[in-house]
């Protein structure tokens, strides 16, 4: 049998798949908290938080960043909704 045409799938690096250590998790959470605090203090100008965003991105796994971004959006929406401040967009209100 000739296996010369078989495509070899690269194995995932154990390092890339390893769970973050406690120290790495704490660094990630700390960077997230500092970034979120900056966003809360600079609601009108999130560009003030670019350095903290970079630190957050370099301290956390990409999947965690996506999760935390979605989580923050949800929490902010929930906060406005519960306070009665949520205003549906015009396109949402029509549907």
Would you kindly provide a written description of the structure presented here, covering whatever features stand out?
The chain is mainly α and 95 residues long. Helix 2 packs antiparallel against helix 3 (50-59). It has a domain at 23-81. The longest helix is centred in the C-terminal third of the chain and has 21 residues, at 62-82. The chain is globular, with a radius of gyration of 20 Å. The model is unreliable at 4-15 (pLDDT under 50). It has five helices and no strands. This is Cytochrome c oxidase assembly factor 6 homolog. Belongs to the cytochrome c oxidase subunit 6B family.
Task: Please count the beta strands (DSSP E, at least 2 residues each).
Answer: 0
Biggest β-sheet description: none
Molecular shape: globular
Strand proportion: under 5%
Rg measurement, Å: 20 Å
Number of helices: 5
Structural class: mainly alpha
**Uncertain parts:** 4-15
Summarize the entry for a quick read.
It is built from five helices and no strands. The protein is mainly α and 95 residues long.
Index terms:
95 residues; mainly alpha; 63% helix; mitochondrion; COA6; COX6B-like; CX6/COA6-like_sf; disulfide bond
Fold blueprint:
Layout: H1 14-17, H2 22-41, H3 50-59, H4 62-82, H5 90-94
Helix pairs in contact: 2-3
